Amino acid sequence: MRVAVVGATGRIGALTLAALRGGGHDAVAISRGHGVDVLTGQGLDEALTGVDAVIDVLNCTSGEEAGNVRFFTTATERLMAAGQRAGVGHHVVLSIAAVDRVKGNPHYAGKRAQEAAVEAGPVPHTIVPATQFHDFAAMVASWTETDGVARIAPLLVRPIAPEDVADILVRVAAGEPLGRHRDVTGPGPQDLVDMARRTHAVRGHRVELVPTWENGIFDAAMAGNVLLPAADAEVAPTSFEDWLAAQAE
Ligand SMILES: NC(=O)c1ccc[n+]([C@@H]2O[C@H](COP(=O)([O-])OP(=O)(O)OC[C@H]3O[C@@H](n4cnc5c(N)ncnc54)[C@H](OP(=O)(O)O)[C@@H]3O)[C@@H](O)[C@H]2O)c1
User: Is the CB of 229 under 6 A from ligand 1?
Assistant: First the structure.
């Protein structure tokens, strides 16, 4: 199967590209780094020639809600239109579990707009909602780290290994369009502050973590069980502990 990964230079994109190639698929890499811009459409028709399925793992760097909504809407509409011209049979998009429950977060607003554009678009699709990744805690701490101190929200999450997400996206792309896949998640719940502390420890990164809702990124709208997946979620195999152990190798 010929499958295009949109956002192929990104963290999940690179893993998805590797999983496709490991599975014997013909993988096409799409990103600005590969000369394709999904916002302007530059290079998109050429890149999608002969492609059977698209896996969209794009990300937006805007911190504003309007910027996120504009980015994900424009990118999805362009991808869907180009996909229809190229005869793409399946558009798979990585979304976030509980995206409808979290209001006031710019990225989540963008992801809701992305889902809406996928659902309104002409190419048969599957939306794959994933919980936070195992590397999410350290990434979030890095956003606020200043002078050896990082402020981080004490979120309750049920994280999933990025490598497992990539494998699931490849499996889904090779199957029939489902509309919406079940939530995908990892084996067990974790506290984000504890995850960050343990990740920093194995990576040898010294930073003082301050658990607080005054972190400028995530507020108490994400507290409690809000971010946890639905009860019927697909559970991927790699635990946070297994992933941490691999980080130390
Ligand atoms: N982190 C989590 O815990 C988590 C959980 C669930 C879902 N997700 C979702 O996972 C997705 C991917 O996240 P990530 O961290 O892997 O992203 P990332 O590392 O920031 O990568 C983003 C990718 O998008 C590409 N891109 C951006 N603008 C582009 C444009 N105009 N045209 C073409 N390519 C463009 C980038 O390549 P260039 O810069 O080279 O163009 C890059 O390859 C996000 O949508 C996020 O919502 C993340």
Answer: no
Q: Which domain holds residue 236?
A: 2-248
Alpha-carbon distance of 123 to 104, in angstroms, equals: 30
Mutation pick for ligand 1 pocket among 6, 30, 32 (CB with most ligand atoms within 8 Å) = 32
Tokens 């805007």 — which residue?
A: 62
Alpha-carbon gap, residue 71 to 145, rounded angstroms: 27
- Compute, in angstroms, the gap from residue 58 CA to the centroid of ligand 1: 4
Q: How far is CA 249 from CA 138, 236, 245, in A?
A: 17, 22, 7
Predicted confidence (pLDDT) per residue in 183-231, tens digit: 999 999 999 999 999 999 999 999 999 999 998 889 888 999 999 999 9
- In this structure, what CATH number is given to the domain that contains residue 231? 3.40.50.720
